[in-house]
Amino acid sequence: MSINAIITGASRGLGRALAVELARAGAKLVLVARESAELHAAVAEIRAAGGTAHAVAADVGDKEAIHRIAGAAAALVGPIDLLVHNASTLGPTPLPLLLDLDCEDFERVFEVNVLGPFRLSKVIAGGMALRGRGTIVHISSDAAISAYPRWGAYGVSKAALDHLGRSFAAELGELGVRTLVVDPGEMDTAMHAAAMPEADRAALARPADVARALAVRIFEQRFENGERISLGGAS
Amino acid sequence: MRAASAPRARGERRLLLLDRATGSVGDAQLDELPTLVRPGDLFVVNDAATLPASLPARAPSGAPMEVRLVRARDDGRRWQAVALGAGDWRTPTERRPAPERLEAGARIEIAGLPATVMELSRTSVRLFELMFESETDEVWAAIYRRGRPIQYAHVPEPLALWSVQTAYAARPWAAEAPSAGVPLDWSLLSALRARGVGLAAITEGAGLSSTGDPAIDAALPLPERFEVPAATVRAIGEARARGGRVIAVGTSVVRALESAAASGELRAASGETDLVIGPGYRPRVADGLFTGLHEPTASHFALLQAFAPRAQLEAAYAHAERGGYLGHEFGDTNLIL
Description:
The complex is a heterodimer.
Chain A: E1 4-8, H1 13-24, E2 28-33, H2 37-48, E3 52-57, H3 66-77, E4 82-85, H4 103-131, E5 134-139, H5 152-172, E6 177-183, H6 190-195, H7 207-219, E7 227-230
Parallel strand pairs in A: 1-2, 1-4, 2-3, 4-5, 5-6, 6-7
Chain B: E1 2-3, E2 14-18, E3 25-29, H1 33-36, E4 42-46, E5 48-50, E6 54-58, E7 64-72, E8 78-84, E9 107-110, E10 113-120, E11 127-132, H2 136-146, E12 171-174, H3 186-194, E13 198-204, H4 214-219, E14 224-228, H5 230-241, E15 246-249, H6 251-260, E16 269-273, E17 288-292, H7 299-304, H8 310-322, E18 326-327, E19 333-336
């Protein structure tokens, strides 16, 4: 069965790798990210390989952008069966201590990492529920479970995202919509480099490998509704 | 009937009941809907999302105008549309200045993108086909960035797309909200499910309700895109088999279902429909209709007469008027069963 999917934060890192992987398996993709050359390069890469992909340039943390994303996506590929909340922000880097974090920066982290996913699920999951099928994936982090100095805003937002996924699972499971929370582990990405510039990149997982493992789980629906899984990335 | 002038929550909406068999009229709250239908009944909804179909545009001379998208003729570059003169919804459509006269082949600007006027309708020179010159992705981005939901003078505040979507919208086909379904939130839909009522979907590109151009308005409803999927045909068959009734949520659902049953038998179908349902038409698929309360002059009212005689409808509307019911897209609701 063909799958119509939206992936946010799809211009680089895990989001881009997952888009490539899903497109290779035949899914029709809508890649969402803020306007950038990387976003269009990601779409071009998928198309060059024979896949179907469209770019929607938008900021998921902007409420005004939500219908722009959902509407354009459904117009371009059809009703959405798979929504991957991958976009996220660390907030200011170098990562500040919570006591030094500006209130507005904390708000912005929540807009992107929690409110954006809620709003997008709100306008897309109803259609899934009506059709009796759909999958919503929440890309989380180890920081949602363990508290680390300087990771406060990000960790708190990811803990909230985890619970958003579980709460939707509790409400939508009987309607055929399933949610998954994924801790991809530590990967060699631009975001990781921004947070931990001193890390040994050789010890980090490659986004493409993590994406492959996740794509299999999604296609085979190999997860319990509302489950939180950890994937191969180093941690 | 007084028009509701702003979006309203489910809990504020009333439900006017009309019994087709007896003509009796009753009052209820929308929240009571699950107790007013029977286990085994099936609600069929329109899952079309509402487009930001009102777009700022410039005529060939550069004069500002408004273009209202009616329906996509392909994947999003070619559209049927209506031109309105300068101004916005705050001026009643019939008092809007006429737009500059368009000619086939003329180049105009819509939502900041160049487009070509492909042909003018024989109905009116204000009804035309246009082709955007940009790529599809860029066209959709511009429509959603620059467009606004179509609205009318009885709603003074600008509407956000958030307030004109149903809770299950999936495909942006509707020029105007399939408004009957807008008050059905998931709490109410879940209560219907718990009662043993089924839920199935069609998609229908509900079009404009008024343009202010008498020639176009006399031709409404224009042809619209529709799709009735096999799963819904099955669900209707199963509802029938168990003795349940098929209740259409909105006139767009009636149009889609009846179009798919045009051969005499309901079949999965998609395409465009020019079927106009009015007095004397006997619906083959829908046994009942859940809808909004609209002006008795509108084409909406003609469709209702496929479900109940005009005299019954007029009596029901008179009752609603006396009872202070509100009309139009954010108004109260009506169950004809």
